[in-house]
Amino acid sequence: MSNEHPDSFKSRKILQVGAESYVYFSLKDAEQNGLPGISSLPFSLKVLLENLLRNEDGRTVTKQDIIAVKDWLVSRGKDEREIAYRPARVLMQDFTGVPAVVDLAAMRDAMVNLGGDPKRINPLVPVDLVIDHSVIVNFFGNAQAFGKNVDEEYKQNQERYRFLKWGQSAFDNFRVVPPGTGICHQVNLEYLAQTVWTKTENGETVAYPDTCVGTDSHTTMVNGLGVLGWGVGGIEAEAAMLGQPVSMLIPEVIGFKLTGKLNEGITATDLVLTVTQMLRKKGVVGKFVEFFGPGLEHLSLADRATIGNMAPEYGATCGFFPVDGETIAYLDETGRKAERIALVEAYSKAQGMWREPGLADPVFTDVLELDISSVLPSLAGPKRPQDRVLLSDAKAGFLTSLEGEFKKPGEADKRVAVTGTDYTVGHGDVTIAAITSCTNTSNPSVLIAAGLLARNAVAKGLKSKPWVKTSLAPGSQVVEEYLASADLQKDLDALGFNLVGFGCTTCIGNSGPLPEDISVAINQGDLVAAAVLSGNRNFEGRVNPDVKANYLASPPLVVAYALAGSLQIDLTTEPLGTGSNGQPVYLKDIWPSNQEIATFIRENVTKKMFQAKYADVFKGDANWQKIAVPQGETYAWDGQSTYVQNPPYFVGMEREPEAVTDILGARVMGLFLDSITTDHISPAGSIKEASPAGSYLRDHQVRPADFNQYGTRRGNHEVMMRGTFANIRIKNQMLGGKEGGFTKHWPDGTEMPIYDAAMKYKAEGVPLVVFAGKEYGTGSSRDWAAKGTKLLGIRAVVAQSFERIHRSNLVGMGIVPLVFEEGTSWQTLGLKGDETVTIKGIAGDLKPRQMLDAEITFADGTRKVVPLLCRIDTLDELDYFKNGGILQFVLRKLVA
């Protein structure tokens, strides 16, 4: 280590493992040398504490910061102490990765313009980008589906892939996992993550906990492997890549005690939906959740990863599982090197980071408890992951939603004929049944269960209903291997669950179009069609534009609903269909036993499979290998490209930042209710021909068939800013709850698309603000939700509360997040959207979490002064804000 390390608690030591010796920062020594009691901290906080001990420099990390973690034992995280955290590495997927690499390329150009060396713009920590978000289920239900979807993906994404290959050669510390390998979380869990990380520094090998931030909110999946990781916006990830610490508050840690074990016929998905509902009810936004208790003995690592994955759905920063014997077994089963496995065990034990039965429980801020044996078969829907419904209540729950939420009273029996077929479709008919990536394809137990259920259904003569779009998109190539080895893929194929691709599909809106005749029938009849998917997100408008009711379920239940074909069938009491012998077949007749599932896993999921599939993980298929790569330190931008453009963030930028100004006479762009997700704000899903983004693409000679989707065009700000706030289901209350991205331009009150109004206001020199309710910005860590907001000219967002990642992303783009006092909302103030808003106190000596006043002038001239809390939370965030954003701050630092 460098001589500048103060090592205030004399924690620097050598760990000998076999023939290797490692430098490490010992929590046990630090406890003896001035940090009494830290051995009883939660395991997740021990990871943060080690991070501070190792990075102590007297400036970004001080002795007082380290003491503050010890003092957590008294404050339990209630004192809101800020620390600078440095993750070991960064994980990206391509939707968020492309714009991050675009920004790095743009920073290289800006560096040249400011007279600096472009090579100074480089990731300083290892970055892995996994291309997993671009495959769309255009083809399904046959043996050719996989090949055709891959061909289509490469055809649509040549420009993006060429750009990423340039990045791979131009930047140091940056690797790309090619398309068709699996989803980033699965590749992270099975291959990239090491649980204990090492690096060479001044000729010595330093060992420390593997930690990561990822540009996908489900980065938390790796928490199941004892790796502290969570989702950040692309903006924060770029800063971490460029050596900036992640500014964070020492969190509250909620302990979640698990006892007992799963009963016969209950899946890990049922467990995670139960956990999600409990933690959402508890309220854990901005907090760590850590799992403990004797129930961990009965959870496989895949089960733990399933629970860790859904931390964004329960709202927590992470859902952490400490390292124990199960971790070591998994590292071995997935083919990690023997020396690394030995280091993980020795290091974890030396640091007091090893969990085993009989040890005292850590100290937590608060504790929840669940007896796992009480978990029952469950789904979640029709719109939110936390809205769990028992399988036995799913039919009644749907009918209640049909009457209430979807406002279709008395229509339960409505049917519409599907042209060219002999069948009809109705409310609650399952038009999509997708075994899709993320939560569940980490887990052999539920995938083998789906395969066995398919085998049993086929043996009885059952078929999927003809109106169901079926698909299987595993998170890893290993899944394909073990389903084939177990001879179960043929049975899944027989029910239409053919492999469609390796990647995030239905869960992120890449479900592809429904067959046209079915789509027409749904829209003609204004039907509430349903999707059942084994993913983790079911927000409205996300899965498919034709499908309004979306339910999360385990893979075997996805197969069961494809057989039944409707949410209006109670799978616990009504038959799935009629067997080939003319007798009714019930779910209980074909559900496999836990014992059979375990036997199939033991016999078919092998270490050899993991070693073979990951032996050459960065090579890619023939399609990837033949993409030609441009050379050069700076990127040769193609002005005609509709995928990748040089963004305008650094236009006219000087070495010194301009002073920030107050917001004077702003107009209201939107009035929104609670739970506006980043899906509502950020461009996602398909691009409509009639939208501003569609017009832009048509003007650039792109045929509607080649529009692709917003996610693939995240490298082009012109498309993305046109799609911001353009979600088909968003409701701006200025227009009385009309769906879609519209607003009114004042003072004339003309209704128009939000993008058009924003450009008109920009031409008039008028700043904009947005008002919203609670939990603004929940959902995926979409950086474009903040970038698009910035490019539309919105200076501030005023809400009742913010989700963690989106709040920090707004600050990272130079936008002020403001929070009403308790009991105040835009509704209590009587806002209609035709008011003007002035917010003073931003210019000058702004402090973190300062109270500011907004002066609202109503159309009749009356005025109200409203106190607002400025949610720029830390001094680092204030620096970013005053520089116009985090990228500008980093660039100025590197130039200096």
User: Which strands sit side by side, in order, in the main sheet?
Assistant: 26-29-30-31-34-33-32
What shape does the CA trace take?
globular
CATH architecture of the largest domain: 2-Layer Sandwich
Radius of gyration equals: 27 Å
Strand content is 15-25%
Q: Mean pLDDT, as a whole number?
A: 95
> Counting H and I runs of at least 4 residues, what is the number of helices?
30
What characteristics describe this protein?
896 residues; alpha/beta; Aconitase, domain 3; Aconitase, domain 4; seven-stranded mixed barrel; five-stranded parallel β-sheet; 30 helices; globular
Description:
The protein is 33% helix and 18% strand. By secondary structure, the protein is α/β, with parallel strands linked by helices. The chain has 3 domains: 89-374, 2-Layer Sandwich (Aconitase, domain 3), CATH 3.30.499; 378-605, Aconitase, domain 3 (2-Layer Sandwich), CATH 3.30.499.10; 649-895, Alpha-Beta Barrel (Aconitase, domain 4), CATH 3.20.19.10. Helix 8 links the parallel strand 12 (253-259) and strand 13 (288-292). Helix 4 (94-113) packs across helix 7 (234-241). The radius of gyration is 27 Å and the shape is globular. The model has no long low-confidence stretch (mean pLDDT 95).
Fold blueprint:
Blueprint: E1 12-17, E2 20-25, H1 27-32, H2 43-55, H3 63-75, E3 82-85, E4 89-93, H4 94-113, E5 127-130, H5 145-170, E6 174-177, H6 184-192, E7 196-201, E8 204-209, E9 211-214, E10 228-231, H7 234-241, E11 246-249, E12 253-259, H8 268-282, E13 288-292, H9 301-309, H10 311-314, E14 318-320, H11 325-333, H12 338-350, E15 366-371, E16 378-380, E17 388-390, H13 394-403, E18 415-417, E19 424-426, E20 430-435, H14 444-460, E21 469-472, H15 477-485, H16 489-494, H17 516-524, E22 529-533, E23 547-552, H18 555-564, E24 577-578, E25 584-585, H19 587-590, H20 594-604, H21 607-613, H22 622-625, E26 663-671, H23 678-681, H24 692-699, H25 717-723, E27 742-745, E28 750-753, H26 754-764, E29 768-771, H27 783-791, E30 794-799, H28 804-812, E31 816-820, E32 836-840, E33 851-857, E34 863-870, H29 875-882, H30 886-895
Parallel strand pairs: 4-5, 4-9, 5-6, 9-10, 12-13, 12-15, 13-14, 20-21, 20-22, 22-23, 26-29, 29-30, 30-31
Antiparallel strand pairs: 1-2, 3-11, 7-8, 16-17, 18-19, 24-25, 26-32, 27-28, 31-34, 32-33, 33-34
Helix pairs in contact: 4-7, 11-12, 14-18, 14-20, 24-25, 25-27, 27-28, 29-30
GO biological process, one term: tricarboxylic acid cycle
Pfam families: Aconitase, Aconitase_C
Subunit structure: Monomer.
